[in-house]
Amino acid sequence: MFKPWIREAPSMVLREYGDGVARLDLNESPYTPPSFVIEAAARELERGNRYPDGNMFRRLYEALSSYTGLPRDNIVVGAGGDDLLRAAFTGTVEPGDKVVAPRYSFGMYRVYAKLAGTVFVGVPVEPRGEWWVLDEERLISESKRARLVLLDRPNNPTGSMFLSEKRVEELLEEAKGLVVIDEAYYEFTGSTVAGLVEAHENLVVLRTLSKAFCLAGFRVGYALAHPETAEKLRRLLPPFPTSRPSVAAAIAALENPGYAREVVEKAVAERERLRRMLSEAGAKPYGSHTNFVLVETGIRGVVEKLYWEGVAVRAVPMGDNWFRATVGLPEENHRLVEAFSKLE
Ligand SMILES: Cc1ncc(COP(=O)(O)O)c(C=O)c1O
Predict the structure, then answer these.
(1) Which numbered atom of ligand 1 lies nearest the CA of 82?
(2) Which residues sit with their C-beta closer than 6 Å to ligand 1?
(3) How far is the CA of 280 from the centre of ligand 1 (A)?
(4) Nearest CA, atom 7, ligand 1
(5) How far apart are CA 154 and CA 23, in angstroms?
(6) Which of 145, 147, 194, 340 is the most exposed place for a label (fewest CB within 10 A)?
(7) Residue 299 belongs to what domain range?
(8) What is the pTM of this model?
(9) What is the 3-state secondary structure (H, E, C) of 74-131?
(10) C-alpha separations of 222 from 82, 89, 235 in Å
């Protein structure tokens, strides 16, 4: 019934958290959405019998247009970055095609690549001092034979930034297929390649409201692309890509983005404090341009051991003595460091 390669795709099992566990595993914001966002979403609950309509989406597109500085034609809304990524796969690859991304990168790239029956090529990354570096030449040369290239910029799970804007342009010129530059953590860096979409039809820039805007549970993301490309992506999405409360929350958030800037400021200050505390506790935290930190330790099974201490962090493919921790509230970060200090 189903395509045979679907069995080979990793299945995504959601964690059921125990009471009081600090959730530092999914790179969510630890701050709840501001009350004006919650109120805007709540006002839509009693209209839950209606599909979200064109008027709502027009307002969302206008809000995104003034937030990004790009016209509406360049924008596509989806149910989170995940949804738009799936659309990028559906619209481009055939089984057996080559998909290129850094090894390591956001886990869903591999999941979607497997689900589509493609050949996933991971371009090496390696630690150099506090940061990670990508074999950029290799990424560019592999892209000449790939139907789809995915680059999370900044990269998850390393927290490093790969490819300068100039290099991205070079990639766009060399690539045979679509290039997705995933800017899920854009607000934490301010660095973007959105300015290149007009000149490069093969570029899709992905963004999300899940991180700096504190709206992960609402599932809203957007893509920025050349109008022709944006139009194709829109066709690949369902007519009601997300719910009425989510659209209303996103409009309210984007019309008042000041709170997201405060969230970023707090997260960045806290991130550096967390890195210092982890270093003092004997771990090696890498540099980060995001709301998470990649950490190397001398402790095997560190993710499981931290969970038993009430702190959920993310396992990473570098080894079982490594973890990725989201920057949480100050007290959660303390709990993480305290829990880590107890381990042997
Ligand atoms: C690099 C990257 N891209 C995309 C996403 C997906 O974000 P969402 O589907 O919540 O918009 C994430 C989430 O962690 C991410 O780290």
Answers:
(1) 9
(2) 27, 80-82, 106, 152, 156, 182, 184, 208, 210, 216, 221
(3) 30
(4) 81
(5) 22
(6) 145
(7) 4-32+259-342
(8) 0.97
(9) HEEEECHHHHHHHHHHHHHCCCCCEEEEEECCCHHHHHHHHHCCCEEEEEEEEEECCE
(10) 10, 15, 14
Which of the listed residues 224, 255, 286 is the one where a domain comes to its end? 255
Considering the domain architecture, whether residues 80 and 111 belong to the same structural domain is answered as: yes
pLDDT, tens digit only, all 344 positions of the chain? 999 999 888 888 899 998 999 999 999 999 999 999 999 999 999 999 999 999 999 999 999 999 999 999 999 999 999 999 999 999 999 999 999 999 999 999 999 999 999 999 999 999 999 999 999 999 999 999 999 999 999 999 999 999 999 999 999 999 999 999 999 999 999 999 999 999 999 999 999 999 999 999 999 999 999 999 999 999 999 999 999 999 999 999 999 999 999 999 999 999 999 999 999 999 999 999 999 999 999 999 999 999 999 999 999 999 999 999 999 999 999 999 999 999 98
Pocket test for ligand 1, best of 182, 188, 288 (most atoms within 8 A of CB): 182
> Using CA positions, which residue lies closest to atom 6 of ligand 1?
81
